[in-house]
Each structure stands twice: as structure tokens, then as C-alpha cells.
């Protein structure tokens, strides 16, 4: 009977998530073209032609709706997390409840911060460089589907990259690694941040530094957060 109860509860939670996703997607579908224009804005005004191209017949219709669905998924993540929390919280101890919900919320905030960081800082720097890096005789005119795939992957990469502090908290909380070890690795983290900046950002010192400093800051944030993990100072 208990198993049946949990199954019904799980089905109810999943159904609510699905309803939320469908409703948000339906609303965003009306503005699908506007969403795509917003996504392509960092590149459009840096292109000599001023526009993207479509090499597939259905791309002008399909690409904006694909973007609308991805945005709907991201917009519904708070609902997904809330429903997950409502499902698992009865099985948690009081101490676990006090830590898990803030962990979910801060993870979500950092993910959205990473997406915003990529869109508002990385995209302008990257596309400014790419627009002027084409060899003589080559005009940059990206396909709209290729652009969608490239940018959404980059947004997700930075969203996940901004989860570094929460990953550190989780590792310390699970006793996989000690906080003292993370502190000892600070110098390696700084070097790693500038290596990431060198590989991802355009080849100029300012752009690389603008990317490396936030990465370093994320590691420092993780170190600060691990101070609040139970018994972290004893590890």
C-alpha cells in the first residue's frame, strides 16, 4: 500500500511538471521568433550582412520553436525542483531538509547566472572576435540552426560551469574530499581559471582576464560555502 501511495504521488508530481512545461511552451510559442531574435542579437549587428541564413526549408519555422521549448524547460526548472522537493522531503531528516532546499535554490541561481554571464559577456566578446577573424574573401553568414545549436550548448556549458561552488559543497558534504584539500588546491584553481579563459575567450588579455576572474571567484565562493558544511572545519 505504501509503494502504491508513493507511485501515485510520483505520478502526480510528474504530471504537474508536464502541465507546467506544456503551458509555458504554449505561451512562449507565440513569441518564438522574438526569442530567436534576442538570442541572435549578440551576433547579428556584428555580421557584415546583418543577418543569418537558413540552409534548410523548415529551419525558419523549426529553429525558433526549438528555442522556445529549451527556454520553457529552463523557465520550469524551479517548478521541477519544487515538485522534487515536495516528493522527497517527507523522507528526509530535519537537518537534511534545512540544507537541501537552500542547496537547490543556490544551484538554480548559479546556473541562471552562468547563462546570463555567457549571453551578456562571452557572446559579445566571442562574436566580435569571430566577425573579424574570417580570412580575406570569406563572409561570415552562419546558418540559423548551427547558430542555435552552438549558442545553446555554450549557454548550458557556462550554466554548468557556474555550479562549481555547489559541486565543492557536495563533495565536502559527502566526505569525498576535505575542505583543507580544496584550500590547498587554490593556486591550481587560479591557474586552471586562466587556462579556461585562454581556451574559451578571444586571444586578447582583457577578454581572457574577464573570463578567468569570475571562474576564480566561483572557486572562492565554493570555499566560503564549504565553511558552512557540518563539521567541514574538522575535515
Produce the secondary structure layout:
Blueprint: H1 2-29, H2 32-44, H3 59-88, H4 94-131, H5 144-161, H6 164-173, H7 179-184, H8 186-200, H9 205-226
Plain-language structure description:
By secondary structure, this protein is mainly alpha-helical. The protein contains 9 helices and no strands. The mean pLDDT is 85.
Keywords:
9 helices; 235 residues; 77% helix; mainly alpha
Cα end-to-end separation: 43 Å
- Estimate the mean pLDDT confidence: 85
Helix content: over 70%
Which H/E pattern describes the elements? HHHHHHHHH
Q: Report on the biggest sheet.
A: none
β-strand amount:
under 5%
Briefly, what is this?
This protein has 235 residues and is mostly helical. Helix content is 77%, strand content 0%.
